[in-house]
Here is the input.
Amino acid sequence: MPLKKVAVKPNTMTIASVVGARPNFIKLAAMAAAVSEEKISHVIIHTGQHYDFEMSQVFFEGMALPKPDYNLEVGSGTQGAQLGEMTKRCEAALLKVKPHLVLVYGDTNSTLAGGLAASKNNIPLGHIEAGLRSFDMRMQEEKNRVLVDHISDYLFCPTQTAMENLKREGLATKSYMTGDVMVDSMVKFSPPQKLIDSKLGKLGLKKKGYVLTTIHRAENTDSIERLSRIITALNDLSKEIPIVFPMHPRTEGFLKKYGLLDKISNLVVTKPQGYLEFLALEKYAKRIVTDSGGVQKEAYILGVPCITLRESTEWVETVKDGWNVLVGADRKKMFDQTLGFKPPKTGSNLFGDGHAAERILAIIRKDTR
Ligand code: UD1
Ligand code: UDP
Here is the structure.
């Protein structure tokens, strides 16, 4: 695919951000806002890992993000095929742009592809949301985190736990405690009351009178037995309290493939939501039931008890603090915790003050002169 030349500001530093999946865009939004305040050229490379309107463009529009300079249109595929193609196309884009630094975000395949393309070409690499560990290497995200951390030059950590994880792996000298850029995005894009009322009204939901659920992790979707167990439990739970379910395309695909769509007839099923709309649904949920990484953390920040459909989490602080509980795919625990979970009276400010992106930029500026 021929790549056009991207115009950069003369005599300025050029940073290239590689993104591709929904959570990458939300983290990018924080950095894009901070970078726009400075004399820096910011080139955005979208791998095309996510491509549906509701999984990609809705975030660029909803957060008024600059249009990506490149969309590499890689799309879906098996792990190796998707990663290989993304790495190849990212490399071509990076060789064209010749940035001073590449930033990658989180733990998706786009993160690893951008990281490999930069590192293999000896372009300095910064990993935003570095140091997280679930210690479950069967998860694609854990492989991506560990690999990217070990090839990065700058490791920007959201929490003290992340700093400690990296220290144990011999990476302390490259690690910086910056706080979490997702807090920056939450502060910047807080949903207005009108949007909240209209969203809840349209879905027939009462404030603090419903459960919000998201399921998309491979561990839960790909096995018919496990997916069936989870959605049957959720459908039965929704007879006790309304459950709204913005459905990820991966999950929709497997529900169709396994003939399970009729098992969710009592849930309020929606398309994936835009960021502000989703924050609104999170804020007024009584409980959140999820397997998402980012949603566990947002639940904590918003003070909504979270029931996590996983055996492990990289956001261990949320569990230690008593606001998150891991239930796997256990029906009884799902019921008991969703209906009876008693959150602690207080929470701490674990993830920062909404200025992580500024700190990251200050570190980059100091070093990359
Ligand atoms: C990816 C990340 C995961 C992250 C999630 C965020 C990896 C290995 N996984 O998972 O860590 O939590 O994004 O949402 O990078 N699909 C569509 N339209 C789209 C995108 C995907 O229909 O716009 C469907 C396709 O059938 C595709 C499947 O979803 O095969 C999975 O997509 P993929 O990008 O491989 O992984 P996610 O499950 O989205
Ligand atoms: N999100 C969203 N719309 C949705 C579901 C999630 O905007 O319908 C946002 C959510 O607020 C969070 C991020 O997407 O910021 C989490 O992404 P996801 O759950 O897809 O991936 P993970 O965090 O598990 O990697």
Remarks:
- The pocket of uridine-5'-diphosphate (ligand 2) is lined by residues 22-23, 26, 214, 216, 246, 272-273, 275, 278, 292-295, 298 (CB under 6 Å).
